[in-house]
Amino acid sequence: MAGDHAALPAHSLRPDRMPGHWLLARLGKRVLRPGGLAMTGRILADLAIGVDDHVVELAPGLGVTAQRIVARAPRSYTGIERDPDAVRWIASRLPAEPWISVRSGSAEDTGLADAAATVVIGEAMLSMQPPAHKLRIMTEAYRLLRPGGRYAIHELLVTPDDISPAVKQEIDDALSAVIHVGARPLTEREWRAAMTEAGFTVCKIGYAPMHLLRPARLVADEGLGGALRFLRRLMRDTEARRRVIAMGRAFHRYRRHIRAVSIIACKEPQAAISAKRGGSR
């Protein structure tokens, strides 16, 4: 366990200072996506990644999705991760193959070539970005994709679309306070609008409950052994337990307004874009 802690991102921070997702990772939680492993599985099935695909994953975190993508043997896989500790963690858990790479970089400016990918995926990272950064990341995904490419996200959803601004701000503030990272999830209408502004066409959308810390989800995502390990570590760490309880209470308090959402968006072929423009004259 100590060796794992030393390799994890933010390992040097005290539990009361850690971003919530890295605190959960320190306790042994490896699936840190709001809709769980099941939603990630549906996203990968919808993307239908095959041997001709060039996949770019933005902010792969602990590499859980990366391992599943690599198992599908695409033409190439590139992970872009801001945290150097996370880069080392993921790289050590993926096969040492020339078509697999994980590098330090920003999701807003990956440094990769135009049209380098046929698939771009990013999970549980846009919800923590302010609006301008969300748009820059989506625009970077658009730039990276070839015409006809697919972009998938897995994020927090605020419901309903007509939620009052005051309640939405209350949710942002409450989540930010417990996870120690700015939380700015969007409504479905806002997610769709952001995708459209970045140039994408929304092709498919899915939903799941936000049950990240509920016992049934822990077992589904981590397995029974992993869930029990997580609970044992939680019981031994008073400060971490306080933080996790606070997170759980916030998720429960706003359970009617917080869900998980997946969106598959498409970069239309140039011929389709030209036809649309011609028809709008």
Would you kindly provide a written description of the structure presented here, covering whatever features stand out?
With 281 residues, the protein is an alpha/beta fold. It has one domain (2-275): Rossmann fold (3-Layer(aba) Sandwich), CATH 3.40.50. Helix content is 45%, strand content 20%. The protein has eleven helices and eight strands. Strands 1, 2, 3, 4, 5, 6, 7 and 8 form an eight-stranded mixed sheet that branches. Helix 6 (131-144) links the parallel strand 4 and strand 5 (145-158). Helix 7 (165-179) runs antiparallel to helix 10 (238-253). It is globular, with a radius of gyration of 19 Å. The termini are far apart.
Sketch the major β-sheet: 8 strands, mixed
The unreliable regions are: none
Series of H and E elements: HHHEHEHEEHEHEHEHHEH
CATH topology, by name, is Rossmann fold
CATH-scheme architecture:
3-Layer(aba) Sandwich
Work out the number of β strands. Answer: 8
Judging from the principal axes of the Cα atoms, what is the shape?
globular
Mean pLDDT rating = 91
Query: First CA to last CA: what distance?
Result: 63 Å
Number of helices: 11
Output the CATH homologous superfamily: Vaccinia Virus protein VP39
Strand fraction = 15-25%
* Count of discrete domains: 1
